[in-house]
Amino acid sequence: METNRGIVVCIPAYNEEKTIAKVVVSAKRFASVVIVCDDGSTDMTGDIAGSLGAKVIQHEQNLGKGRALGTLFAAAKEWDPRVIVTIDGDDQHDPRDIPKVVEPILKSEADIVIGVRPMMSGSMPRERIAGNKVLDGLTSAKAGETLHDTQSGFRAYSPKAAQSIRFEQTGMAVESQTLIDASKLGLRITEVPVSVKYAGIPQKRNPAAHLSEVVDYIMTRTVIDSPLLYLGLPGLIAVILGIVAGLRVVSIFSATHQIAVGTALIGVILVLVGTVALATSLILKFLTARFQREK
Predict the structure, then answer these.
(1) Reduced to 3 DSSP states, what percent helix, strand and coil does the chain have, rounded to the nearest 5?
(2) 243: enclosing H helix or E strand
(3) From CA 192, how far away is CA 236, in angstroms rounded?
(4) Global pTM?
(5) Taking the chain, what is the end-to-end CA distance rounded to the nearest angstrom?
(6) Could you give the CA distance from residue 107 to residue 148 in angstroms, rounded to a whole number?
(7) What confidence tens digit (pLDDT) does each residue in 209-227 have?
(8) Which residues pair with residue 7 across a beta bridge?
(9) pLDDT by residue (tens digit) across 168-209?
């Protein structure tokens, strides 16, 4: 169909032989081409997708969702797409929502569109709702704008976004990473509601592991982005407190001729830890600045 011209649907998939056929067949109705990255599956995922007309790219081993998305975007650019759509291969998303997700981009109203899943009991397991809300809050704070489903894999990207975004995280933190980067680059992010289905879909990823991976990424990136604030300042405070403790030891010794061993030990630890933190912050600041110049 002419209305589907230039819409490229990308599906990262790992051991999805039970659902990939339904996703590919349905997605083809709304796309000019469907590309599947078989990310090291040990089942028939790639064979099934290929037999149904999808372009299949296979990783020899499982490299993670971030790497799969990078491979898909590199391949999608060969079709000169008007929109790149990403959708998971586990059938939790309904490809019939694709027209809704791509509409803001086709109207030049956005660069990235997030398909926001209903966060309510009955539509999504409670533990996922709780975890997603935590990650939404952390990602939104880091991105500097309010986002309501930062972990949704159902998205649409404009050509500008596709050229600008780099999938640097290999695992599940890639969803937060791309949104944070997009916001920092000034790309327009909007959201549209989409349906979701969890009944009958096996849970392949531990929600706790997913949560910890994304939190670790955001915290690490926060420190790297502002090392003087999050490492240097606490380090300086620790050094000052250590010096104060040392002066206290000297004062006590002058008055009683006894060494306050506990206070002295605390002072030494504070000075050492603070010095390391200060030095690390300066090194990170130098390396970050150098990286930005060379980028």
Answers:
(1) 55, 15, 30
(2) helix 233-256
(3) 46
(4) 0.83
(5) 41
(6) 22
(7) 888 889 999 999 899 888 9
(8) 83
(9) 998 889 999 999 999 999 999 999 999 998 776 666 667 788
Task: Look up residue 204 and give its amino acid.
Answer: K
Yes or no: say if 167 and 67 are a contact pair by the CB < 8 Å rule. yes
pLDDT at 257 > cutoff 60: yes
Which range has the worst mean pLDDT, 40-49, 68-77, 109-118, 167-176?
A: 167-176
Q: Which helix (H) or strand (E) holds 37?
A: strand 33-39
Query: Contact, 83 vs 156, CB < 8 A?
Result: yes
Closest CA to 194 of 139, 140, 133, 153: 153
The pair of structure tokens assigned to 173 is: 């933190």
SS3 call for 240: helix
Give me the pLDDT at residue 200, please.
Answer: 67
**Residue entry with tokens 């790309």:** 187
Packing angle between helix 126-143 and helix 207-225, nearest 10 degrees?
10
- Kindly report the number of other CB atoms within 10 A of residue 135's CB atom: 24
Say how many residues make up the chain.
295
CA 38 to chain centre: 20
Structure tokens, 156: 């649409």
d(CA 44, CA 65): 18
